[in-house]
Structures are given as structure tokens and as C-alpha cells.
Write a structure and sequence with these properties.
32% strand; alpha/beta; 10-stranded mixed beta sheet
């Protein structure tokens, strides 16, 4: 499903794995594996329209013309810490992608993002950046990451989140209307603590077994 620059996946495998991911009985090992698998499946869909070029290749039997990826190279930008598991899945699909990292935490009182680390590929301005984070909740962290990328000259930016809240989508597009958002689900709302409802809880804690 597509609404403006928001793309909501309806692939059966994505929906099936997302349901297991949400279940509070799912342990951190299976949770991490599911996040990696979902990221790979979602990246497959995100790159569907990526340009290709004709190349010639020799098979063991003959010479033939095939297709090879063209256009901008990709940089995957996980937001620490929960985005790390998604980066693993995307990198399996696109092993030549460069990886950047952004460390942002949400102040528990103000719910505003605080950036404590940012490291991008040196050629980020020439690359297509794919920001990955399991949850697009308030949108503050994503907006801060987009701000940092644009300050370094990056102009082609996509966001990939497993679950999104309407409030987060609005915040991202209010600040950066040009950025495309890809997600497996748009949930109901945020609660008073900034968590997505029904969501899946704290993605970082469930990924790394810290709670």
C-alpha cells in the first residue's frame, strides 16, 4: 500500500514474521533473527525500482547479455542500538553497501533526541542512504539522522522501519517531505511514554535481552 511517500508492505512473509515478532512470548534470539529476516525482505522491496544496466557475461556455454545494478551506491545507516540487527539483514542482501552509524537516544523526560555519535562513509553525499530502525515512534531520532545526513550533502534518503506510528511519520514528513518511508505496519498511536501501540515493546531490549 502506498500513501504519498509512505510505502506499507503487504507481502505475506513480512506480515507472518511481523506477527511472531510482536508476540511477547518471542525470546531475544528468535526476535533478533526475525528482525534480520524482515530487514532483508523489506530491503528486497525497497530496491525493486533500483536502476540496472546491460552487461555482457560469459557462461560456461555461451556469451550473453544480462543486467547489473546501476545508479547510486547504497549506504546503510542503522540508528544505534536497535538498528544494528536490521543492518545485518540488509548487508546480507547488499554486501557491497557501505555502513554508517548514528547513536541517538531519547531523553526519557522530554522525549527529544540526543545525538552522541555519528560516523558516515566519506562519500555519503554521492550515495543513497537507507536509514534503518525497527521503530519509527516519535520520529525525533529519524529526523535528527536525516538532518545529519543532509548536513553532509546526502540528498537521496530513504527510511526503513518495521513498525511506524502516525505521529512519527508526520514528524518526519513535516521536516523532510522528500524522504520516502518504508514500513511493514502503521500502528494506532503513541502512548504517554512515546511507545507505539500495539507495537512490540522496546525493540532494543527485546533484541539484546536487556530487560
Amino acid at each position: 500500500m502506498t500513501t504519498g511517500k509512505v510505502y506499507v508492505f503487504d507481502h505475506p512473509l513480512i506480515l507472518h514474521k511481523l506477527t511472531i515478532l510482536r508476540d511477547k512470548r518471542t525470546g531475544h534470539k528468535e526476535f533478533r533473527e526475525l528482525v534480520e529476516e524482515l530487514a532483508m525482505l523489506m530491503a528486497f522491496e525497497v530496491t525493486r525500482a533500483h536502476p540496472t544496466r546491460e552487461v555482457e557475461v560469459e557462461t560456461p556455454l555461451a556469451t550473453m547479455k544480462g543486467r547489473s545494478i546501476a545508479g547510486q551506491e547504497i549506504a546503510v545507516i542503522p540508528i544505534l542500538r536497535a538498528g544494528l540487527a536490521m543492518e545485518v539483514g540488509v548487508s546480507r542482501l547488499i554486501p557491497t553497501a557501505r555502513i554508517g552509524h548514528v547513536g541517538i537516544y531519547r531523553d526519557p523526560e522530554s522525549l527529544e533526541p540526543v545525538t552522541y555519535y555519528a560516523k558516515f562513509p566519506v562519500d555519503i553525499a554521492e550515495r543513497e542512504a537507507m536509514i534503518v530502525d525497527p521503530m519509527l515512534a516519535t520520529g525525533g531520532s529519524i529526523v535528527a539522522c536525516i538532518d545529519a545526513l543532509k548536513q553532509r550533502g546526502c540528498r537521496t534518503i530513504k527510511v526503513m522501519a518495521i513498525i511506524s506510528a502516525p505521529e512519527g511519520i508526520k514528524k518526519v514528513h513535516d521536516a523532510h517531505r522528500d524522504v520516502e518511508i518504508y514500513t511493514a505496519a502503521v500502528d494506532s498511536h503513541l502512548n504517554d511514554h512515546g511507545y507505539i501501540v500495539p507495537g512490540l515493546g522496546d525493540a532494543g531490549d527485546r533484541l539484546f535481552g536487556t530487560k
